[in-house]
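# nightly structure sweep
# worker-07 picked up a monomer target from the shared queue
# config: single-sequence mode, recycle default, output format = structure tokens
# input follows
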Amino acid sequence: MIIRDKENWFRLLFAWHGSVLPQILPRLGALAGLAVAVVYAHGHLVRYQVPLNAAPFTLFGVTLAIFLGFYNNASYDRFWEGRRQWGALLNTTRSLARQALTLAGHPTGAGAPAEFVHLLIAFTHALRHQLRRTDAAPDLARLLPPALAAAVGQSTFRLVRLLLEMGRWVQGSPAGALPGSTVPLAFDYNLNALSDIVGSCERLANTPIPYTYSVILHRTVYFYCFLLPFGLVDSIGWATPLVVVFVGYTFMALDAIMREIEEPFGLQDNDLALNALSHTIEATLREMVGEPVPAAPTSPGRYRFD
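# output follows
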């Protein structure tokens, strides 16, 4: 994810890194070339005059803008829901770490709260890797005992296995063994919250916006933009390429942005910064148990936080 400092209006006009302009620049070039050719040919296609004017494009543009607005709202809702779930993950892991340190009654040594905290950190990284379909083995190996890391790595549902291990840790704690103790219930509430977070993230990752919406919108935007020169050439002449490129930039850029943020857990510039969020959770939990806080991960670019 690209996070930039606030810039004045003039510098913002020329912002390049983090915008979708590099993606759509070749398409805008093709659109500009077509517009120049249409003006040069005076609105003819081969030997035939294309009988279009600006009126139908005006009416159709309003409809297209409404459809783009619907798609944009749906995409941003998915992006914000993903951010809400990772915010809830931060809060829930902090609560569980605090409970392990203050309520469970574990002594130092085997079964100490640090083991539970490492399970929470491993859970966070495993969720990130699952959502991005990357390899979780290196993070599991550095956070868990070798036997447990191997067992979790071989599991089909790694997050469920980690939740089970956390439940077993609570069951084996002194407070968990006390008859009538409410401590296991407090842990269970937050462990259920972790399960809900996983389910919500899996729903977002595995259920995209219906493909037919993407297809019809994508086709409509490009047909509109590439027919627009024929509707403007008779009224504005050689100003057609400039106007067409500006309109094309507006629609094509919005189409590209929506395609990025509708899948919020990816690795594109405008997706969620899961690396930074995972580091924040790990740093917070390690500090709670008195362990050294790891250095923030480096990113390719001053303002990029993957």
